[in-house]
Design brief:
- By secondary structure, the protein is mainly β.
- The two termini are about 20 Å apart.
- The longest helix has 11 residues.
């Protein structure tokens, strides 16, 4: 299950997960909309680590809210001088604390993204070399040139061309993408094949198909698709989304669904009706079924 990550009480129109505003500081674009001691413009950085944690507080043991991947951009509004930066991800608007070490001034604009679940970055044009890094699906990179079967990044890393797609490439079926994550360990706040949660699976899969998708399940329930009418509930279609409080699953066909869940602690495919019954026994009723 993934409950919404609500912080302190705020005006509901200014969800703290998506609003870079604190009592002492807020983003300049929010001036006149929220109260804060001062407003700052912020500075754009890019994620240089393969996976960067976005945490609730500036501490390595604070709750993982979400993750940012290589090449993502983030607007930073505050740095605490102790290795943490507070900012907003440019992609889905999520707000939180990231390690300073994961950020750098943006270099070349990305040209490609990782289309495989994950891939190795080699220091030279040979798969026999020890990998320098492991990059995740959705990571954005700038390709400078090609060398045989490799794409060479502007940082000098060699990536298999077979694992890349041009920026803007759209997968034809987001459910097929989600199915590729089967067996991935469940990780609260995760959004990669190293660890993923229910709404992260939905977001990563839809994003790969070119569909904009918010991060958390309650946001997805509110913002994606249309709710099925009662007479449609017995006719589930591939790509429908089933929502519970704090959880979401993706329908594969009339009888099965795929979801990252804490019951199995992995991404699993299971029959819809027994899963609904199991979750009901644990106290969760279906909140909505949405069709995209």
């Amino acid at each position: 299950m993934r409950d919404p990550r609500h912080g302190p009480s705020h005006d509901p129109s200014h969800d703290p997960r998506l609003t870079p505003a604190r009592g002492d500081l807020a983003a300049k674009y929010l001036e006149g909309k929220v109260q804060a001691d001062r407003f700052v413009t912020g500075e754009e950085f890019e994620i240089v680590e393969a996976i960067a944690p976005v945490r609730e507080h500036p501490s390595s043991d604070a709750m993982l809210m979400t993750q940012a991947l290589r090449g993502e951009r983030v607007t930073v509004y505050d740095r605490n001088g102790e290795g943490w930066a507070w900012g907003q991800l440019n992609g889905d608007g999520y707000v939180g604390w990231l390690p300073d070490a994961a950020l750098r001034t943006p270099s070349a604009a990305p040209t490609h993204m990782i289309s495989a679940l994950r891939t190795f970055a080699f220091p030279g044009p040979s798969i026999k070399l020890p990998p320098a890094d492991t990059l995740m699906m959705g990571s954005k990179i700038a390709v400078a040139r090609e060398d045989g079967s490799f794409a060479v990044t502007r940082d000098g890393q060699y990536l298999p061309k077979a694992h890349l797609a041009p920026l803007g490439h759209r997968e034809p079926d987001f459910v097929t993408v989600a199915e590729r994550f089967v067996g991935t360990p469940y990780l609260w706040g995760g959004k990669s094949s190293f660890g993923i949660d229910c709404s992260g699976l939905v977001q990563v899969s839809l994003t790969s198909a070119g569909v904009g998708c918010p991060r958390d399940s309650d946001m997805q329930q509110a913002g994606l698709g249309r709710a099925l009418e009662p007479h449609e509930l017995g006719k589930l279609q591939r790509g429908d989304l089933i929502f519970w409080k704090g959880h979401v699953a993706i329908v594969r066909d009339a009888g099965t669904m795929v979801h990252a869940n804490a019951h199995h602690m992995t991404t699993e495919i299971e029959p819809v009706e027994p899963a609904i019954a199991r979750i009901r026994t644990a106290g969760g009723e279906v909140a909505a079924i949405k069709r995209l």
